[in-house]
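Forum: Protein Structure Q&A
Topic: Joint prediction for protein chains with partners

I've read a bunch of threads here and the consensus seems to be that you should model interacting components together rather than docking separate models afterwards. I'd like to see that in practice. Below is the full input, 916 residues plus whatever partners are listed. Could one of the regulars post the assembled result?
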Amino acid sequence: MDKKKIPYKIYLEENEMPAKWYNVRADMKNKPAPLLNPATLKPMTFDELRQVFCDELVQQELDDTTPYFDIPQEIQDFYKMYRPSPLVRAYCLEKELDTPAKIYYKFEGNNTSGSHKLNSAIAQAYYAKKQGLKGVTTETGAGQWGTALSMACSYFKLDCKVFMVKVSYEQKPFRREVMRTYGASVTPSPSETTEVGRRILAAHPGTSGSLGCAISEAVETAMSMDGYRYVLGSVLTQVLLHQSIIGLETKAALDKYDIHPDIIIGCAGGGSNLGGLISPFMGEKLRGEADYRIIAVEPASCPSLTRGRYAYDFCDTGMVCPLAKMYTLGSNFIPSANHAGGLRYHGMSSVVSQLYDDKLLEAISVEQTSVFAAAEQFARVEGILPAPESSHAIRAAIDEALKCKETGEEKTIVFGLTGTGYFDMTAYEKYNNGEMSDYIPTDEELAKEFAKLPKVEA
Amino acid sequence: MDKKKIPYKIYLEENEMPAKWYNVRADMKNKPAPLLNPATLKPMTFDELRQVFCDELVQQELDDTTPYFDIPQEIQDFYKMYRPSPLVRAYCLEKELDTPAKIYYKFEGNNTSGSHKLNSAIAQAYYAKKQGLKGVTTETGAGQWGTALSMACSYFKLDCKVFMVKVSYEQKPFRREVMRTYGASVTPSPSETTEVGRRILAAHPGTSGSLGCAISEAVETAMSMDGYRYVLGSVLTQVLLHQSIIGLETKAALDKYDIHPDIIIGCAGGGSNLGGLISPFMGEKLRGEADYRIIAVEPASCPSLTRGRYAYDFCDTGMVCPLAKMYTLGSNFIPSANHAGGLRYHGMSSVVSQLYDDKLLEAISVEQTSVFAAAEQFARVEGILPAPESSHAIRAAIDEALKCKETGEEKTIVFGLTGTGYFDMTAYEKYNNGEMSDYIPTDEELAKEFAKLPKVEA
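Posted by a regular:
Agreed with the consensus. Here's the joint model:
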């Protein structure tokens, strides 16, 4: 093959596809801090975690030394339904920006779930099936994760119980119906079906719910039913392991054409996409084999990395989950009502948090009107309507490309385009009508939340 | 390459991509009847048609002898953004049905417009740009065509004015917002902005609009504005020419692996997808080189082929368009209110109509609850949430595969999966809730419409 001719889209051949996931923790000198049992403040053991999660997933969660895990053949077979995802050269965007920068994006939206979440959903469903379970429970906010999981469970004929944040359940009925079409049961959270749900409803009548609350309900349901476990779509290190497929494919596609990226950009909510995309590049950086600028982009309205505290915190509102050390805004933090997209979790993956604390990646925050402006500009020339979450990375990529225009540098920029915005048209409508606003939490608001962080010596 | 190993998805290489569209009329012994001027009842001339359509598109419309048209390089370049579309072996569906049949589907939903409509939208936008026009006008019902056209116009920086059937404009705001995000202006039809719109509003105050009415408004607007032309997403023979890319890719992919299909199935509304998908196969059939069963699938609630009259009829409600000879339910026919998806045009492409009249293809009609049952079954195993329109083809493909199960025949079935159902979740919700109903128009209802057909000796 002529190494010089770079196609519009780079697809890997079947025999070039990664057959192993990469566990970046194996190369980290400073390992992410362990999950703690909130009762004893001791690290969670395998036996404790397997009450909540599937056995093999717990092994993956706890293993910070094995660099590669074989991707089971059944999961590789499923990946064939929508992978490899294309690495696209954004020729049209480059032309529109009139920049000397070369821009590539890894597009994860070409599957019915519409996002990268499917990469981990199918893995978690597979291990649940392999363990002989009847089903799984989970939470979902805007619905990307719930959609992906219901699709994966349908494939393996597993029962799927989704607790959907009530405000989304009511205001985003389409995602709910996608999940139901795949056979999942969807319950608005908080609900009367769990103890923690009833407790929250009693304390906050009429509440519209939160991700942290839905997590608590899903965990309680899994633990109280025979043959069920809880699964989570982000934050956990097992999820980042599965999502490493994004980065591994990206790296293989770049290597195929001898392309060396200067900057790698991902949006960051819980960290699943970012952690997956950057993992092999970060591995090289950790091993001293190569250097890259790596940028996490988060919403200014939910700035866990850029303005959060690096501390042990609860993962959920009901405090039924282990404590995790992470950059956090406090487990009761909820983004302002005008916040449109996802990326609204109060904390950040412990892996990403540790890498950030070690200054191995940068973080920036962007305001949502500028994010939608970037989304629109991208859509009009690249022909893909991006999810609001993904558009945070687009914003940062455009800004870096415009800096190159000023300096004349021909930098190579790679960003993760995690999904499509088909189910986010209400937010686009607000933007189209000029009715979208920004909000940046004040220092005082954040300080109030920080004061409630649990007192744990890390 | 090992000819025997058939991958899960067959993608063509860049150098295997078709560089010409195929004009099936060139091989038809009985040519489709010409468009007639409603005032003179004489065939529309080039000069008459170019008042409405772009010059090169009129040439394509009128040319029934040239078998191949070069695809301009600019259009080939745009096609690279989302083509080749995959030809997928439905291994999971075959397993689910436990059928010896081999099922393939050509998936056209992998682009932001979500359907095959983009294939012709980009061509029509290109010719408009080439002619130096300022913009184009069109109508849209559910919104697939309007979405595709607004995306294509955005790419070529053309103005795009869409008249959207009022009921869809109000009830399907998300498609409208996609179009606006791509920079199109979207007007609910009937509107006060056109003479025909004002006339219809005066005659039917409070009407929720129809496709035929929106066509009239779009045509009037194009003809009254300097530098504008009208474009149409289906029915016309030029559209079928552009859509031949679907069939040509399908045939190239099958040939690459020595696969001979027995049955080819497409859903049929105006005929654009069906006509495009079947064209090269029909060509072989017309030239006596091969034989195939070709099946058009239409909704029982809008059965133009299976129950319509083959006659000259108006293409629009306002009667500003030429007359076309086609299988038609009458230009005032509107499907019953419970009809959920597209495929609601009263007539059928004159090419498809003539082929059907010559018994070169079969037609069947299916009821929508059975269509959604097929959609759900397909989604759960194949991981794609299909558009209601596409699901008509799925229904027929499943039924043929189940017949093979009974007879033990290993037939090869190919069907067109024209798009995704992301914007049709209201219909899915109805189905999920058991609230979807069927409706078959009575003979009396159809007879009333037939009585209004214009009296034209063909």
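Residues 237-256 of chain A form the longest helix (20 residues).
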